[in-house]
Specification:
InterPro entries (chains A, B, C, D): ADH-like_C (IPR013149), ADH-like_N (IPR013154), GroES-like_sf (IPR011032), NAD(P)-bd_dom_sf (IPR036291), Zn_alcohol_dh (IPR050129)
Largest interface: A-B, 44 and 44 residues
Domain Alcohol dehydrogenase-like C-terminal (chains A, B, C, D): 187-314
Distance between the termini of chain A: 14 Å
CATH superfamily of the largest domain in chain A: Medium-chain alcohol dehydrogenases, catalytic domain
Number of helices of chain A: 11
Protein name (chains A, B, C, D): Zinc-binding dehydrogenase
Largest sheet of chain A: 7 strands, mixed
Radius of gyration of chain A: 20 Å
Oligomer: homotetramer
Structural class of chain A: alpha/beta
Domain Alcohol dehydrogenase-like N-terminal (chains A, B, C, D): 26-147
Helix content of chain A: 25-40%
GO molecular function (chains A, B, C, D): oxidoreductase activity
Number of domains of chain A: 2
Chain lengths: 361, 361, 361, 361
């Protein structure tokens, strides 16, 4: 039997349950879990803030494991997978490739068929989340081996924040030498701050908190940090302008989850600059802005960024492997928890007591 | 002596004053005015809604004239200008080509040196606006001859709405077959509706009013019009979704001047669509939106569009000339006014009694 | 029994064979063929100029038909299909959605799994080409209904030239008012000349022949045509420069199939212009160019364009329907042939005696 | 009197001449030269391979100096310059900001008015090149102060290769994790290899020679180098494919000056990849390619890259300052020469005996 952590319903205590070893369909893989992430989304799931979740679920949408069994599966590069390989996989499953969004709009993250491991797949259908000893990768799941130079702990330090940030930073179209402001110092914000340097930013300013996260931002190369708890919006605007010849950031990336951060981010950005909003993952209310001053006269470019696709994870693996000597990825991991400590992990993440928490079965 | 209409101060009655014929610097041109536009901006000027205006001014920023005298000036294509030629010119004067915005950001419409004929140049400095018998084109003003196949009345029917809309529609990156919603049926909105067809839109839906303008939208090819006065936002959203398989517009272009139109436009646009805001020309207040639903989860791309440059006017002239057989441009002109009727023209425009009004000295 | 035209091998005479009515898998459709195109590709197939063709095949990759039977299939918009509907479909079948090209590079036309109806599917596997009374649309084939305002003959007049040209013109990123040169006056070239107008080109110049095709170019709105048989490359360059202030075309689109056209096209394009190469469909030899003069110093942007995807066909349908009143699409069809006249049709196309030939069973 | 090195005519020996100290026009600056580059362009100038050069000239187009005198000049950020500041400047002078290329095409590097310090300005007009004790910066020259954290020697190590490479790498649109091949290991190629890492490339492969330059490529982070002298084109293609799952480079950047490198580079690049050609600076002959195989079927994107503008130099300064701890820029400098050693410097550069040579007066 295989043990897995089940979230039975919003607010209900997590439970450790046993599952049978699944029979593998052609193209499927059984993964022995090495680690699975506990991220802000899991806290949202537990609070019941996401719609369309088929509780009970096994949480854990970004995971890494060793192949225990494979029934003829191949990786994204088309190579046959073999037992013992260490791989990750895209949590998104079932994007149809046939609907209007997939084929005409080329916006696969909007495909209505997409399901997400650990989020929108029920534990009644099997081991479809990462907080378990094994994970059942259905046929068609996009599997990506980790290169030798990328330790699995290092990869998990990025977790789902890395492909999310990679998507956002790609949309941000940073030019060499640009000033980049990142709003938010959680996993997405920290990854964005790193990736901005890997786009040749001229300076990276991280706005957020608490201190533990701002220190991490410093260690990961931020040129300046601004503590959200110790400044007013006016002061933050003033600090950014001081460092940019009075103009504001060329590019701002929002990763906060707080609605009022959005109009503030518009103001932090210079005229004709670009603003990417990636942190408004749940509906926690509205914000007020001035369409003339904050958008139209500014000639501002604002981009909402939702979801990741295969390419974002594939590229995250490549980047983390290539620049592993330059950035101490594992430094982002605060603590590892056993399956029976999942409840504690969830609460630590919800309270922002940790930067990154892992379940290590 | 040369007669010109002067706006002495906000709210003060227009006056007809006399000016001396200017001596031309090398590279300057004296234009005999054929027509100058009365546009919404002039109403804003009169109401005192724009900052930094050096009253008294001669209004009129988009004009066409016959060259009365030239001191060695050349047009944008580099050809020497000659007496009698019918030309227009970019109202923007003095963009420096040396500042950070001009040279590094390539955002010339944000150059702090730019002045605008008829808006930010004072009548104390001469004939620097279009509502006059002659206009003094300083050295460096960008001059564009009208091709023979483009009657000057046809060109003026587009007025400043055409390059503004051309800029917005360019930013909108319409793909072949896209559904385009235009919010607003004034000169910018109508021009945007035409230009969307010249990008191969699959359908163009104009939302606005009053009836006289929606009829013009119909004549200029709109596939559907929605009267703002007879519908609620929910009904408008419903109508757009009915025509788009439930998805919303691929591209929406805002040209209304009303802040609440902006969040509405975000909702009218489909997931992963694009929204261009060009109509929020003055500060008339704030708007409220939901960053999660309206921007982030939608994966929406929002672009503020400010100002025109030489290319926009040059391309407007080319497009209006090429498609003059297809679109009856002059149909946009409601009435021509003499210099001594300028006050009436201004009030007709402010009250939206006309689509396009011209001063014809 | 169902009759279909079979091409047994390169150079071998076409044969009329009988096929059994297929049983439909879930998601499949049986189409009663209304018409199928005879295009240049079919001539290449017959001459054996394409690699990887599993002869015998039923040619015909762009077709339109009436639904005779459906086993629960849906169209690209997600709507259930019903008997009697008139539809077309993307000839490309089997793009995997899982390989590196599909998921990381987002270059689905490079997917190694893609097969093409009428080209790389064998008649031994059934009615998988359009020159037959019925066509078997396998599950997953992308099906697009024709809107009422688009007659099926009008749609077929575009044939595979329209989505090919739409792809090329999209890559060409034509700006409003640009001068567009199209090299080649076959179906792709003519469609490109039309679509350039639907991007707001300032003028469209078609270079090609013979006279029958140049006349068609004129009727479809080309501002100028240049007969390839009556001019030297130097004369053509001279003519284009005369019409562009000495600069050359802003955008050039190649649709000729002749290697030497490519360096000529580079020279016809202005400095910092864009050149799209879509007509080099088979390997007929090399060309020589000067990398300094023709590419580097010109700051030229050159784009090879290969294959179409669902979006190109979907958008073609939308555009042809929307602008059917403006362009007399059926004017492109020279002749319709019965199934038993397929050999004659093929030879007429190979000899360029017709603009567009249809098989109408 | 001020001493400067003059190149009297192609092939003629360099001469040391004396110039009078110029009187400064308003907006002009007199720079005390700290260093000026000897680059491949100077070798071309000396061999007479560039057209339109008004010999005699003072060579030296990329230089750094201390402000000796200023008549009210401002830097690109708009700040007043002051005596003693260490600055560089864009060698391009006189871009008009009014012609069609400047205003409509937004292709300022194609402006017919642009002159280049050290290349197309004659020594008969003054100290308009860098190989002199002082340089006369005319009004309107774009001046950029070096930040404190960027030593002037470090900046000069990049020289004109850095903004050239920055332009090319920007055009290359590298995505995170891409494989980037750089053809050529001279100053432009080495800078491109560094900048590719600052765009998050997954691996960088440098093809070139001789050994001294490939060692520099290794030190500057290249993941692999291929010696052009020890491999055939087929072997190089094989090596690149081995490292890319058989596909080829996502992005290739050419910086060789050898025409045959261009078709080779097309083949080194994967289907639907991108190829930037920046090294074909002079006309040294033609190349042959197969438009079907090398361009069209490959769906290849090829971009010629010519000239730099203010933004490229401004951004180079920012990037070199920000990443000075990571890349040992001065390591690129092989040797410094006095004014009276200029002839030797020129010959060393022409013979590729050095990576980067500086004149230090």
């Amino acid at each position: 039997m295989i043990r897995g952590v089940v979230m039975p319903a919003p607010q209900a205590p997590l439970e450790l349950r046993e599952f049978e070893r699944p029979a593998l369909e052609p193209g499927a893989v059984l993964l022995e879990t090495l680690a699975s992430e506990v991220c802000g989304t899991d806290a949202h799931l537990w609070k019941g803030q996401l719609a369309g979740v088929p509780y009970p679920i096994i949480p854990g949408h970004v995971s890494v494991g060793r192949i225990a069994e494979t029934n003829g599966a191949r990786d994204v590069d088309g190579n046959a997978l073999r037992d013992g390989q260490i791989v990750t996989f895209l949590d998104v499953y079932g994007t149809c490739g046939r609907c209007w969004y997939c084929t005409v709009a080329h916006a696969t993250t909007r495909c209505p068929e997409r399901k997400v491991y650990g989020v929108t797949l029920s534990s009644e259908d099997g081991l479809l989340g990462g907080w378990a000893e094994h994970i059942h990768l259905k046929p068609g799941v996009h599997i990506i081996p980790l290169p030798e130079e990328l330790d699995w702990r290092a990869f998990m330090a990025g977790g789902c924040g890395m492909p999310t940030a990679l998507h956002a930073v790609t949309l941000a179209e940073i030019a060499f030498g640009d000033t980049v402001v990142v709003q938010g110092a959680g996993p997405v914000g920290l990854c964005a701050a790193v990736l901005a340097q890997l786009r040749g930013a001229g300076q990276v300013i991280v706005i957020g908190g608490p201190a533990i996260r701002l220190e991490a931002a410093r260690r990961f190369g931020a040129d300046a940090v601004i503590d959200i708890a110790e400044t007013t919006p006016e002061e933050r605007l003033e600090r950014v302008r001081e460092r940019t010849g009075g103009r504001g950031a060329d590019v701002t990336i929002e990763a906060t989850g707080v609605p009022s951060a959005v109009p503030e981010g518009m103001r932090l950005t210079r005229d004709a600059g670009r603003y990417v909003v990636v942190g408004q993952y749940t509906d926690v209310g509205t914000a007020t802005f001035n369409p003339h001053l904050d958008l139209n006269q500014k000639h501002l470019d604002v981009r909402g960024c939702w979801g990741s696709d295969v390419g974002h994870v594939y590229r995250s693996v490549r980047v983390m492997a290539r620049y592993a000597a330059q950035f101490e990825w594992t430094d982002l991991i605060t603590r590892e928890y056993g399956l029976d400590e999942a409840q504690e992990a969830l609460e630590d993440v919800a309270a922002q007591r940790v930067v990154k928490a892992l379940i290590v079965p």
